[in-house]
Amino acid sequence: MRGLDTRVMLANARIEQLLGLQAAADLMKWVARFAEADGMTDAARGIHTMPVLFDDELMLASWWCQGQERHAKGLDKAQWRMLCEKSAHANRQGCGLSHDEFIRRLSADIDRAMELLPYHELPDALTIAIDEFDYQTAQQCEQVAIDNSNDGYCCHGIQMGCCPAGCDFPDEYFEDEFHG
């Protein structure tokens, strides 16, 4: 029955609220996400009538309607670009000025963000990520790491022996230096 899982999740969230459990707020966020996803899925299937189980729950009905609207609008490209730009900025801070490490970290963040997008928004999100942010798939990042290794570079894309993370130094160096 459409919406049953979401309705059960809402009941569990309410029980946790009554018990005063901290997890209730997080569970309620998931209820909202699932109800919206139900609306998007229904819209993608051409179903525009709300599940009967949502009729007497204003929150579920509202979130389901938001999903219907979101499906109709498609990807919010400005919001997606802003999310990618924030991720790029954050990953520039921890990459050690290695372009390969930056791309690997940024691409992993984008992969996690794309897991939350509805299926019909993925092509637009992927196009923006590739064209504007040099996104690479996990397989492409792995191939870059293999190529780097074959060419004498560490896993961070930096020449062996020059990496600030200490790549290519034998373990004995660290034992002598820090424990000796």
Question: Could you outline the blueprint of secondary structure elements for this entry?
Answer:
Blueprint: H1 4-18, H2 23-44, H3 58-73, H4 77-93, H5 99-114, H6 122-133, H7 138-150, H8 171-179
Explained architecture:
- This protein is 67% helix and 0% strand.
- The protein contains eight helices and no strands.
- The longest helix is centred in the N-terminal third of the chain and has 22 residues, at 23-44.
The count of DSSP E runs of length 2 or more, i.e. the number of strands, is 0
Molecular shape: elongated
Helix content: 55-70%
End-to-end distance, in Å? 67 Å
Strand count, sense and barrel status of the largest sheet are: none
Uncertain runs are 176-180
Broad structural category: mainly alpha
- Count of helical regions: 8
Query: What is the radius of gyration computed over CA atoms, rounded to a whole number of angstroms?
Result: 23 Å
Could you spell the SSE succession in H and E letters?
A: HHHHHHHH
What percentage of the residues does DSSP assign to strands (E)?
under 5%
Give the overall pLDDT as a whole number: 87
